[in-house]
Structures are given as structure tokens and as C-alpha cells.
């Protein structure tokens, strides 16, 4: 039951540290993915929107077509290389004019901020944005970044969904568990699962055709 807090009343609050850490990693990961997408796809790429939750994060980028599997892999690989490089994530406050002169209008990748003073979040040599969100101090702290899927959501807009850190590792462990279970049920090695599933599907189609023929004869 949600209780209303009365104005002027003193309350004790506590930060959910685990949730905060997950959101922080996801936010850092979004900046890294944004920078990686620009490097791989071109400098026409800008952030159009983003969302961070405990389960996953997403970024909508400006791009003229759906991403290929190869492009997804390149973006993910570059993002994880930036993580491994242990680059500092710098945060500082600057006057708008000074920030624009130093970094250009690309700092508004996440949207225009109507303020005379901007908080700049920079991964030196890779990504810089005006951002007021929660961030860590080093790319290494983000942990593994996994692209879940990408899809074209509108003309000129592509959505990239990701997981980062322990959330990403838990996701991969679950995928591995499912793969192992499927392999056991099919009686094949894990690397042979795709071929076994294909054969199973072909057998099913063949039996379906046979069943249709038998029904026509009745």
C-alpha cells in the first residue's frame, strides 16, 4: 500500500544500492554504445531517445536502415573494447558557450538542455555528451555489454536494446543453460544444435505433408 507523504513531514529515505549500480552501468553502457554506433555507422548517428531499467536499456539512434548482423557485432565488439581499455568517465560542469566551442553541438546527442550551465560526461577520445544522469568513473566498471536485438522503429530511427554488467552475464548464463538443455533433449553436442533443429523442422514439415495427403484420401 502506497502512503501519501504530507508536506513538511520529516521522512527517512534509503537508496537501493543494487538497483542504483545496475542503472549506472546501463547508463554508462548507453553512452558507450552511442559512441560505438557513430564510429561504425557514421557521424550522422545521434541519440533520439533512451531508457534505462534494471532489466535492460535501450537507445534509439538516427540511422537510415536496419542494422545488419555484422554491424551489430562490430558495435558490440567496439563497445566491449572500450570497456576493456579502462578509460576514465569524466564529469564536469561548463558554461554552455564554452562547452559548445570546445565540443561542438554534438554534445546534445541526447537532446537539447535548456540551461546556461551544462554537465558534461566525457569518455576521452570516444564520446562526449551533455548529460545529467548517473555515471560511474571508469568504463571497466561497466562490465560486459551485450546487444539483445536491434530493430527499425520508424523512418530514420533504429532501436538498440542492451544489457550490461552482471545483468548481461546472467542473461548469457541463462542462454547457455537453455542451449545445454536443448542439446541434451536432442541427443547432440551443443555446437550441432542448429543443424539438429533444422533437421527436426524438416522432418516435421514432411510428416505434415503426409498427414494432409492421408486426410484427402479419406
What is the CATH superfamily label of the largest domain? Answer: Threonyl-trna Synthetase, Chain A, domain 2
Largest sheet: 4 strands, antiparallel
| CATH topology (fold) name of the largest domain | Threonyl-tRNA Synthetase, Chain A, domain 2
Strand pairing plus helix content: what structural class? alpha+beta
Shape annotation: elongated
Query: Helix count?
Result: 5
Total tally of structural domains: 2
With strands numbered from the N-terminus, the spatial order across the biggest sheet is 1-2-7-6
Report the portion of residues in β strands: 15-25%
Order of helices and strands: HEEHEHEEEEHH
| Assembly status | single chain
> Average pLDDT value?
90
Question: What is the terminal-to-terminal distance?
Answer: 62 Å
The share of residues in helices is 40-55%
Rounded radius of gyration (Å): 23 Å
Q: In total, how many beta strands?
A: 7
Query: Which regions are unreliable across 5 or more consecutive residues at pLDDT < 50?
Result: none
CATH architecture classification of the largest domain: 2-Layer Sandwich
What does this structure look like?
The protein is built from five helices and seven strands. It is α+β, with helices and mostly antiparallel strands and 218 residues long. It has two domains: 17-174, Threonyl-tRNA Synthetase, Chain A, domain 2, CATH 3.30.980.10; 188-217. The strands form two sheets. A four-stranded antiparallel sheet has the order 1-2-7-6.
Amino acid at each position: 500500500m502506497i502512503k501519501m507523504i504530507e508536506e513538511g513531514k520529516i521522512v527517512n529515505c534509503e537508496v537501493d544500492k543494487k538497483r542504483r549500480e545496475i542503472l549506472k552501468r546501463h547508463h554508462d553502457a548507453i553512452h558507450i554504445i552511442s559512441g560505438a554506433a557513430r564510429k561504425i555507422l557514421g557521424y550522422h548517428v545521434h541519440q533520439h531517445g533512451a531508457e534505462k531499467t534494471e532489466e535492460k536499456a535501450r537507445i534509439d539512434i538516427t540511422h537510415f536502415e536496419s542494422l545488419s548482423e555484422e554491424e551489430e557485432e562490430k558495435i558490440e565488439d567496439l563497445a566491449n573494447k572500450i570497456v576493456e581499455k579502462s578509460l576514465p568517465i569524466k564529469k564536469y560542469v561548463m558554461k554552455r558557450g564554452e562547452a559548445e566551442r570546445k565540443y561542438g553541438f554534438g554534445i546534445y546527442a541526447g537532446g537539447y538542455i535548456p540551461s546556461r550551465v551544462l554537465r558534461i560526461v566525457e569518455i576521452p577520445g570516444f564520446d562526449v555528451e551533455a548529460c545529467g544522469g548517473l555515471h560511474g568513473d571508469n568504463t571497466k566498471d561497466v562490465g560486459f555489454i551485450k546487444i539483445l536485438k536491434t530493430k527499425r522503429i520508424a523512418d530514420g530511427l533504429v532501436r538498440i536494446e542492451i544489457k550490461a554488467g552482471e545483468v548481461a552475464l546472467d542473461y548469457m548464463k541463462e542462454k547457455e543453460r537453455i542451449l545445454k538443455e536443448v542439446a541434451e533433449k536432442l541427443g547432440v553436442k551443443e555446437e550441432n544444435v542448429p543443424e539438429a533443429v533444422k533437421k527436426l523442422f524438416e522432418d516435421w514439415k514432411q510428416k505434415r505433408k503426409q498427414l494432409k495427403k492421408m486426410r484427402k484420401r479419406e
